[in-house]
């Protein structure tokens, strides 16, 4: 008999597939927002209502692992191509000999199946404009699949947002990738640390920019006829005023996937190892069930190619991708002896809609409540019913986010019991 967690995973992603099938009449599109150098613990503590909203409605993880070099060039290349350095050959920020001809950015792969797709990128870091020639004045990225590459790097994140709004007004746009770099710059100048006010302010400022971009997306006249996948992630964390090493604060990152056909789930997974750590080599079995950087491109491809005759991007032998999609049922492991189940929690069908993120966690987390009004009674209790914390919160917004700090409690499993308007819902909290 399979473990319950695994059965739950399969059932949830089967439900996600049903939601996807309901969207087949809508044209799939992708908005990919990259925020450079945001540590997971900093994001958790920052005041980021727009990112919180995406997490509270979408699929998300604080357990995405970096198996390669944590330099920006290598990181973004892995995310955009869906393969690791051994294939795309980018190991640092100089792009000395990229292999994008054989392993291009995901929009080019998508165009092999759907050649009329329109893709645009807006970047703030010049090497991403054209890794084969960073001085390219034409502004086009070779072998990438982008119709246009807009370099707004010297004009700040406001210029990125303004350019994104212009592109989102185009009804023919299918894929938009935008890149914010100010968070990484703040980390390099003053420290990648949640105790650093300058770094935290940069994260909160970019959240406001994300909110403007999302508002423009939702205002598209054709939005109700479209099936948008919103991807939001970072490339690496940081330690001190640098990154590029193999510490957990650099390797352990986060991402979000949201949209009308995306289920509300949280994914967690153990460290699958690193190609740069002899003492912690990559476990190829764990790679099959743990979120990693290369999953971003493959998840985007699975969505944009939905409803086409292009097949599964994970198993296309000509593409030879390393990542996996979190939107397809055949990524769910069925043999627990070789594929440890990934912990995924459903929050779609709860009596009271709320999410806990991250979960598992170290005791610091948030609970997000969707479309409630009036008083919410929240208790954190032990498995035997002992009450440790009780909060009564007034829900007056579309989304109510409540922070918690349980670091004084021993590690283990607790319950969050929520009562509202005569209803009660209980969910597990895992402190580790």
From TrEMBL:
Tell me the ranges covered by the Secretion system C-terminal sorting domain, including all copies: 356-430
One GO term in the molecular function aspect is: hydrolase activity
> In terms of domain of life, where is this protein from?
Bacteria
UniProt organism field: Taibaiella chishuiensis
Q: Where is the signal peptide?
A: 1-22
InterPro entries xrefs: Alkaline_phosphatase_core_sf, Phosphodiest/P_Trfase, Secre_tail
Q: Which UniProt keywords apply?
A: Signal
> Under which name does UniProt file this protein?
Putative secreted protein (Por secretion system target)
Lineage of the organism: Bacteria, Pseudomonadati, Bacteroidota, Chitinophagia, Chitinophagales
